[in-house]
């Protein structure tokens, strides 16, 4: 991972074998990022995404392996109970151009990953909503 800061933005390059969420955590802790928007693209060969079932309040996750291009990576980095928290959604197209996606659980870079973080002044924490079943922003 290499990155550079430009004012309120951080541009980040991920290298083969690096895992997206792991490297975001390293960056957030190193730079004391408390709230940021994330967007990105690149290529992966192993990723797990999930879908939240509102009726059962359970995530169903699926792992995918092969050659994939990230078509969208978007979300936020913030805090839960004062610690790093990332909420990212992810989609990737395979060799047949079929797109798979959902809530990002894990993704390993195969060629490169290019992420841009927009730093937001302020800080938000999250807490588990018993009604919804998700970790929601606490205002």
List keywords for this structure.
139 residues; mainly beta; six-stranded antiparallel sheet; two-stranded antiparallel ribbon; 8 strands; 9% helix; 66% strand; flat
H-E string: EEHEEEEEE
Major beta sheet summary: 6 strands, antiparallel
Question: Outline, from the CA principal axes?
Answer: flat
Q: Fraction of residues in helices?
A: under 10%
Question: How many whole angstroms does the radius of gyration measure?
Answer: 15 Å
What's the pLDDT, averaged over the residues? 97
The parts where pLDDT drops under 50 for at least 5 residues are: none
Strand content: over 45%
State the separation between the terminal residues, measured CA to CA: 33 Å
Report the count of strand segments: 8
Structural class: mainly beta
How many helical elements? 1
Task: Give a concise summary.
The protein is mainly β and 139 residues long.
Task: Write the SSE topology.
Layout: E1 2-6, E2 9-14, H1 20-31, E3 36-53, E4 58-80, E5 83-93, E6 99-119, E7 125-128, E8 135-138
Antiparallel strand pairs: 1-2, 2-6, 3-4, 3-6, 4-5, 5-6, 7-8
Describe the structure.
The protein has 139 residues and is mostly beta strands. The protein contains 1 helix and 8 strands, in the order ββαββββββ. Strands 1, 2, 3, 4, 5 and 6 form a 6-stranded antiparallel sheet that branches. A hairpin with a 6-residue loop joins β7 and β8 (135-138). The mean pLDDT is 97.
């Amino acid at each position: 991972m290499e990155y550079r800061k430009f004012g309120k933005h951080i541009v980040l390059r991920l290298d083969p074998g690096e895992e997206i969420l792991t490297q975001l955590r390293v960056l957030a802790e190193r730079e004391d990022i408390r709230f940021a928007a994330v967007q990105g693209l690149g290529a992966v060969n192993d990723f797990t995404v999930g879908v939240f079932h509102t009726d059962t309040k359970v995530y169903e996750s699926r792992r995918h392996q092969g050659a994939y291009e990230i078509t969208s990576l978007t979300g936020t980095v913030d805090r839960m109970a004062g610690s790093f928290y990332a909420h990212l959604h992810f989609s990737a197209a395979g060799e047949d151009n079929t797109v798979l996606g959902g809530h990002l659980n894990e993704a390993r870079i195969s060629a490169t990953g290019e992420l841009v973080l927009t730093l937001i002044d302020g800080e938000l924490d999250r807490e588990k909503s018993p009604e919804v079943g998700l970790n929601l922003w606490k205002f």
